[in-house]
Amino acid sequence: MFNEFYLSVYNQLFFRWILSYQKQYQKDYIHCFVETDNEKHQIICFESVKVKGKITIWYNHIIEEEISRLSDDKLIFYLHFTMTDLAQCTHLFKEFYQTMVQYTQQKEWKIALCCTGGLSTSVFIEEMQQVCELENIHFQLVSLSLDQLYKHYQDYDALYLAPQIAHLEPDILAFTKHQIPVYRIDATLFATKNYRAIIQTIQKNIQVQS
């Protein structure tokens, strides 16, 4: 009974503690508001331009934390735990909130994979996108034909040339006036469909660009 009393107090303290940082949330461009506050549970919501989050504090001292992408409503963070003390709750909330901030501030790189007609790379990209989804890598991958490349290259952060058109790299660099990076996809990685290795190469190139 005594422990139950303290846990019920912790529920309210944790709820109010979260809401006390409204100014910090605003600085991080995250909107925070109370969705529900009743005897059964309390729900605090967080929203940014890219993700939405929710903290649910249940009457039986179970806490749920979840974050979803706004673009497709995919759940990218979920944790539930039984409240034991405030230190535990605040620590796990900070993990939740840092994930919100990370996803809000993280740049989504627009990467174009290019081949002659766009067919080879369109199939390739579907598989690569699945790998990115599984590993929470923030790439927007697009397949371009050679004609589309010349028309829309400025819409992308980098161009990756399939082996079939890799020999055109000097011409493409000249046409784009070196405004964006142009890379050749390794022929062996492309032919063996080593998606992870190609993604790792893109990540390394981004680090150099940054």
Please characterize this protein's 3D structure.
A hairpin with a 5-residue loop joins β4 (62-69) and β5. With 210 residues, the chain is an alpha/beta fold. The protein is built from 8 helices and 9 strands. The mean pLDDT is 90. α1 (2-19) runs parallel beside α3. The protein has 2 domains: 2-105; 109-209, Response regulator (Rossmann fold, 3-Layer(aba) Sandwich), CATH 3.40.50. The N and C termini lie far apart (57 Å). The chain has a 5-stranded antiparallel β-sheet with strand order 1-2-3-4-5. It comes from Massilimicrobiota timonensis. It holds the Pfam family PTS_IIB. The modification Phosphocysteine is found at residue 115. Keywords: Kinase, Phosphoprotein, Phosphotransferase system, Sugar transport, Transferase, Transport.
